[in-house]
What we know:
Layout: E1 2-8, H1 12-17, H2 20-27, E2 31-35, H3 41-44, E3 50-51, E4 54-59, E5 69-73, E6 79-82, E7 95-99, E8 107-113, H4 121-142, E9 146-152, H5 176-186, E10 200-201, H6 202-206, E11 217-218, E12 230-231, E13 234-238, H7 240-243, E14 246-251, E15 263-267
Parallel strand pairs: 1-2, 8-9
Antiparallel strand pairs: 1-15, 2-5, 3-4, 4-5, 6-7, 7-8, 9-13, 10-13, 11-12, 14-15
Amino acid sequence: MFKLTSLNLNGIRSATSKGVEAWIAATAPDCICVQEVKAQAADVQGKFEQLAGLQGYFHFAEKKGYSGVGVYTRHTPSEVVTGYGSHEFDAEGRYVELRFDTPTRKLSIISCYFPSGSSGEDRQLAKFRFLAEMGPYLASLRKTREFILCGDVNIAHQQIDLKNWRSNQKNSGFLPEERAWMTYALAHPEAAEAAGLGLVDVYRLLQPTATDTAYTWWSNRGQAYANNVGWRLDYHLATPALAALARSEHIYKDVKFSDHAPITVDYELTL
């Protein structure tokens, strides 16, 4: 089995101070995709290049203490791609792709951090621009290789993906336009109305009706975590051939390294 974890760290220094490395050692993923590293290369050097014996590969933001993604892996990649060619968003450190190619297959593990639009209209418009770029990029990538994109997508797709969906229909993360993008991402490439990316929401493949147990993020306001007033914002989005190899999933709600929970999927796959 290939064990793949995704976790928004909300700061690698903060998460490691809360025991994330010991947790990684105990759960022993083959790869862990991390988001919101909130550090630069100089901060990581000599401290966080490796966690629990896994080697890290990163895409840092230019702005200090902001964004940043990484993948820690047991397996040496054949190639590392940082950024997806965006003039605007590559400066924000939102995309790192590890390729594990062989003569007979092309396969990538991607860690991606979609923008949040919750801080105001400017960032919401930036989020829409990111989605408009990411769709065609993933469509192009899918033509040449199989991949699993793990990350904080900052979108709850369906009503069952957040506790209070009725009161959040005009809030970032559950806006109709954002949800429509997720529908497009998961639609068949030859769908009757509008061709989609044809990706698979792996968690929903394994747990199609889960509600309260599906959440991966809780607001720090009020008693959201204690009352499980959560959102499902963290995803494994896979090409169909890889999604078909998913065997089990686990959301680790009871560990608290950040405001997100880790999500792990076991795939019947060998890198």
